[in-house]
């Protein structure tokens, strides 16, 4: 599963860890990604989305129908 949110588009951030001796190593900040299943009443089926926790809050606020319409308008496949 990729660390990419289908609702908000959040992706991992990349950077360096800096130790006490100032040695730098690569690191990655992953978003909190969850697989969630939602019911679409208009299509009478369930869909599984890969969403961040902020994406879950967006779905709770706007509704699953509006969010799915936004994702489809962007051209992403669900």
Structure description:
With 78 residues, the protein is an alpha+beta fold. It has a single domain (13-74), classed as Ribosomal protein L28/L24 (Ribosomal Protein L24e, Chain: T, Roll), CATH 2.30.170.40. It is 27% helix and 36% strand. The protein contains 2 helices and 4 strands, in the order ββββαα. The longest helix is centred in the C-terminal third of the chain and has 11 residues, at 64-74. It is elongated and about 60 Å long. The mean pLDDT is 95.
The CATH fourth-level homologous superfamily? Ribosomal protein L28/L24
Report the helical percentage. 25-40%
Low-confidence spans: none
CATH topology: Ribosomal Protein L24e, Chain: T
Rg over CA atoms: 16 Å
The SSE order reads: EEEEHH
Mean pLDDT: 95
- Structural class, please? alpha+beta
Label the overall shape: elongated
* CATH architecture designation: Roll
End-to-end Cα distance? 15 Å
Main pleated-sheet profile? 2 strands, antiparallel
User: Can you count the helices?
Assistant: 2
Number of domains: 1
């Amino acid at each position: 599963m990729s660390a990419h949110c289908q609702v908000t588009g959040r992706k991992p951030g990349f950077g360096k860890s800096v130790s006490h001796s100032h040695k730098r190593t690569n690191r990655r900040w992953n978003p909190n990604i969850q697989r969630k299943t939602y019911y679409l009443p208009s299509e009478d089926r369930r869909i599984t989305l890969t969403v961040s926790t902020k994406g879950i809050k967006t779905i709770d606020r706007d509704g699953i129908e509006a969010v799915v319409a936004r994702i489809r308008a962007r051209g992403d496949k669900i």
